[in-house]
């Protein structure tokens, strides 16, 4: 990192930080909290003088602050603890996966949402949906009261490593260079990822980096984010976890937005699921609808759980009243399809992160791209 400019822009930080010694120090502070210069020097194998010089630059750039002086029982200057300057920065987080609105928020670097914006979509698709997404970002930029580190966008569908939405049936997007469009419009570092993948990263942050997990996101569509050996699995065509268009049965069932029949999304996406529930005439029928949905999800998950051996399957996006009968049916569907040992050790539950999981995932995307953490 350099001090040639008094204050580096977020784009400059993205170009200079990832993979550097300052990024290693920031990663330690992010993971461990308050640490002194001596603590950091020991942890990364640099001299204290080198660390002190790097920390001075990062304090000047507003990345790090001194938090407290340690109490000591011996003569000499007390060590001063350091931490990331969380209050100096914000991330613009955008979730494009809801069926009736686009959601956005200003989020601090700890993942706490402190301002929200939403825009009803009115069924907008294609170019109209893109223009609405850009307008939502602009609204949040106007409300930002801190330095903006970057923009994180969670989009439904298949998204490549460059933030291009290769295919999103729910937004009617094909080959949309969303990351490039937003960066050119705002001048800010922008990260675009599949919504379920972003949610999986948020869940990994809560669970711990060594946990293998699969996060199933149910909303306007259905998808999964998979973490194996601590890493997000994308697949060679960036379509890993696209379980929404896995057909259950022999091409029978409701017509899916992709044009096929029998897709999981055609019965399990929230709009389709809620329509089925509204047509039910009794509580027992409603339970049957939820159990059928859970059964179909369990059939789709069984080969993935059995082959990957994930420790946890975490479901997000469902109203609380749907979860008990659905998760019970998922487990019943898994039972004859995977080993008893794997089933008994599987942590099958809903996410504890609630409605903000997408925004927290967006923060993690930006932290990784701009600061090289976590």
TrEMBL record:
Tell me where on the tree of life, at the top rank, the source sits. Answer: Bacteria
Cited InterPro entries: ArsR-like_HTH, ATPase_NBD, HTH_MarR-typ, ROK, ROK_cs, WH-like_DNA-bd_sf, WH_DNA-bd_sf
Domain (HTH marR-type): give its ranges.
Answer: 23-71
A Pfam family this protein belongs to?
A: ROK
> What are the protein's GO molecular function terms?
DNA-binding transcription factor activity
Concerning its family, UniProt says: Belongs to the ROK (NagC/XylR) family.
PANTHER family, sorted: BIFUNCTIONAL UDP-N-ACETYLGLUCOSAMINE 2-EPIMERASE_N-ACETYLMANNOSAMINE KINASE, ROK (REPRESSOR, ORF, KINASE) FAMILY
Q: What is this protein called?
A: ROK family transcriptional regulator
Q: Which organism encodes this protein?
A: Humibacter ginsenosidimutans
């Amino acid at each position: 990192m350099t001090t040639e400019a008094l204050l580096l822009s977020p784009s400059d930080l993205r170009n200079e930080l990832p993979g550097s010694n300052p990024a290693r120090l920031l990663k330690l502070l992010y993971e461990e909290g308050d640490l002194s210069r001596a603590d950091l020097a020991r942890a990364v194998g640099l001299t204290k003088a080198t660390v002190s010089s790097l920390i001075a630059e990062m304090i000047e750039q507003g990345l790090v602050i001194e938090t407290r002086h340690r109490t000591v029982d011996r003569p000499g200057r007390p060590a001063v603890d350091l931490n990331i300057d969380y209050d100096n920065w914000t991330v613009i987080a955008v979730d494009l996966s809801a069926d009736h609105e686009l959601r956005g928020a200003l989020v601090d670097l700890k993942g706490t949402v402190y301002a929200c914006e939403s825009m009803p979509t009115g069924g907008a698709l294609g170019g109209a949906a893109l223009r609405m997404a850009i307008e939502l970002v602009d609204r949040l930029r106007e409300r930002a009261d801190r330095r903006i580190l970057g923009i994180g966008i969670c989009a439904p569908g298949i998204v490549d490593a460059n933030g291009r939405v290769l295919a999103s049936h729910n937004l009617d997007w094909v080959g949309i260079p969303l990351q490039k469009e937003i960066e050119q419009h705002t001048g800010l570092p922008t990260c675009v990822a599949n919504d379920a993948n972003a949610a999986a990263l948020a869940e990994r942050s809560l669970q711990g980096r060594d946990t293998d997990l699969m996060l199933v996101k149910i909303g306007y569509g259905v998808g999964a984010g998979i973490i194996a050996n601590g890493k997000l699995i994308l697949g060679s065509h960036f379509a890993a976890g696209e379980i929404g268009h896995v057909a259950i049965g022999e091409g029978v069932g409701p017509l899916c937005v992709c044009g096929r029949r029998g897709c999981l999304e055609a019965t399990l996406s929230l709009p389709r699921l809620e329509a089925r529930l509204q047509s039910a005439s009794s509580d027992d029928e409603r339970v049957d609808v939820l159990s059928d949905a859970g059964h179909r999800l369990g059939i789709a998950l069984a080969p993935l759980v059995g082959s990957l051996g994930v420790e946890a399957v975490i479901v997000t996006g469902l109203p609380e009243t749907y979860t008990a009968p659905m998760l019970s049916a998922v487990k019943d569907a898994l039972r004859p399809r995977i080993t008893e040992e794997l089933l008994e050790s599987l942590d099958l539950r809903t996410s504890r992160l609630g409605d903000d999981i997408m925004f927290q995932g967006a923060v993690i995307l930006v932290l990784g791209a701009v600061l090289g953490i976590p």
